[in-house]
C-alpha cells in the first residue's frame, strides 16, 4: 500500500510553480534515501495538470494527531520515538541534508510504532546546520520529566551550533541509551 501526494500544476500560476519546485526538490531527495526511519519514495509521474508522488503509507498518523487525541506520552514512549527520530536525522545529516521542518505534524507513526519524519519539502543539502531560529524564550521543559530528559531537551535547544550536539551524538545521551527494550512503549 502507498500514499499519494499530489500537486496540481497550473503553468501560469506562481504559487503552483513554487509548490511544484518544492515537490521536485522533495522527490530528488527522497529518491536517494533508504532508511527504516525515513518515508520510502516509490515514484512519480508528471501529468498534464498534476504531479502525483507515491510514498510509503504510514497508517498511524502523525505524532501531532496522536497527542491531540490521546494526550501526553509516557517518558519511555518519548524515548522510543526520540531514538527513532534521531536515527533518521543522523542518517540525513550524514548525507549532508537537514530536514528544516521537524514538528509533530511531520513525524508519522507506523502500526508497530515505527517513527518516520515526512514532508521533505523544506529539506536542503547543506554544508552545516546553521542555528536555531532566533527566539527570546526557550520552550518550557516539563519539570515532571526525568533529569535525563530535561538534560536532553536543554542540549537540543542550544542556539550555538558549535556546541549543540548533532543527532548522531544525541543518540548516545543517557536519556536515549537508558531506553530498555519494552514492548509497551
TrEMBL record:
One of its GO terms (molecular function) is MAP kinase kinase kinase activity. It comes from the Eukaryota. Pfam families: Pkinase. GO terms for cellular component: cytoplasm. InterPro entries: Kinase-like_dom_sf (IPR011009), MAP_kinase_kinase_kinase (IPR050538), Prot_kinase_dom (IPR000719). Gene3D superfamilies: Transferase(Phosphotransferase) domain 1. Keywords: ATP-binding, Kinase, Nucleotide-binding, Transferase. Residues 1-185 form the Protein kinase domain. The keyword Transferase applies. Signal peptide: none annotated. Coiled coil: none annotated. Belongs to the protein kinase superfamily. STE Ser/Thr protein kinase family. MAP kinase kinase kinase subfamily. This is Protein kinase domain-containing protein. It comes from Populus alba. The lineage of its organism: Eukaryota, Viridiplantae, Streptophyta, Embryophyta, Tracheophyta.
